[in-house]
């Protein structure tokens, strides 16, 4: 018997893509009701949960790996959806989407569907590869997969704790316009993004424990690039750099990977 059910996997890709498209269309309807496209940020995590659920229902691989991938993707995706959804309540449209749509007068809905919803759907589908492939691997889970679970746990810690620390910081009116440089933010300027990257490297290792999961390495690479030089840290730092103390904070704090703060050497005469 083949170690990978190619026929069932191909059918699952179609089901996963269709299910994710339904979620995106529902999100677009909600966006029209609430009057902002920023709701797609909440749906981002749910797209991966959708892919994982479809995989779990249809996959024919090792049960331990299937349930591991479902659990890791679902815990991460639901937490992210809950956090972004809660944070956006009562907030206006995201300036990123406003800027995009202002350039398309009279064609806003079509442009939003193709450049916001479709684009994020395609990215989520591609990044879901370790989940959609790993669920069909029939070999037993090995050490590499459990290392992946450990890296995933580190990522969840950095992402959830970093988000919680930022939420508490912003909730204090005395911190308005200031930069957070305590907690995990003392060691990296983006603990939540670092955590997100770890999440996907961990999920990849669970799939890479067997062939053809190794071939899905493009997934964590794409996610890491999005977080560092794509729509993540690069754009956020443009806003952060306008705040008082940014130069000093950036000089002593690692951009992405957590490191001890750099100490400026005293100049001696």
The number of E-state strands comes to 0
Cα end-to-end separation: 76 Å
What is the gyration radius calculated from CA atoms? 20 Å
**How many DSSP H or I helices?**
11
- Our estimate of the beta-strand percent is under 5%
Helix coverage percent: 55-70%
Give the oligomer, counting copies of the same chain as homo and different chains as hetero: single chain
Written description of the protein model:
This protein has helices spanning 6-34, 40-58, 63-88, 95-102, 108-127, 129-134, 143-171, 191-208, 218-228, 233-240, 246-252. By secondary structure, it is an all-alpha fold. The chain has 2 domains: 1-139, no CATH class; 142-262, no CATH class. Helix 1 (6-34) packs antiparallel against helix 5 (108-127). The longest helix has 29 residues, at 6-34. It is globular. The termini are far apart. 35% of the residues are buried. The mean pLDDT is 91.
Task: Write the SSE topology.
Layout lengths: L5 H29 L5 H19 L4 H26 L6 H8 L5 H20 L1 H6 L8 H29 L19 H18 L9 H11 L4 H8 L5 H7 L17
What key phrases describe this protein's structure?
269 residues, mainly alpha, 2 domains, 11 helices, globular
């Amino acid at each position: 018997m083949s170690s990978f059910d190619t026929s069932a996997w191909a059918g699952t890709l179609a089901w996963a893509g269709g299910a994710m498209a339904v979620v995106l269309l529902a999100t677009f309807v909600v966006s029209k009701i609430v009057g902002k496209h920023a709701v797609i940020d909440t749906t981002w995590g749910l797209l991966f949960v959708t892919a994982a659920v479809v995989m779990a229902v249809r996959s024919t691989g090792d049960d331990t790996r299937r349930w591991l991938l479902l659990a890791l993707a679902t815990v991460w995706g639901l937490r992210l959806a809950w956090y972004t959804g809660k944070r956006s309540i009562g907030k206006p449209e995201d300036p990123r989407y406003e800027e995009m749509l202002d350039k398309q007068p009279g064609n806003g809905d079509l442009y939003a569907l193709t450049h916001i919803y479709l684009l994020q759907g395609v990215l989520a589908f591609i990044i879901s590869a370790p989940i959609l492939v790993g669920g069909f691997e029939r070999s037993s889970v090995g050490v590499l997969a459990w290392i992946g679970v450990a890296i995933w746990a580190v990522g969840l810690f950095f992402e959830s704790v970093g988000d919680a620390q930022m939420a508490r910081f912003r909730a204090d009116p005395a911190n308005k316009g200031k930069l957070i440089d305590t907690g995990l933010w003392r060691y990296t300027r983006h603990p939540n993004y670092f955590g997100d990257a770890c999440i996907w490297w961990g999920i990849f290792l669970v799939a890479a424990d067997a062939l053809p999961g190794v071939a899905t390495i493009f997934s964590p690479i794409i996610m890491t690039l999005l977080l560092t030089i794509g729509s993540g840290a690069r754009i956020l730092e443009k806003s952060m750099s306008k705040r008082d103390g940014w130069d000093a904070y950036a000089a002593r704090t690692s951009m992405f990977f957590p490191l001890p703060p750099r100490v400026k050497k005293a100049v001696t005469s």
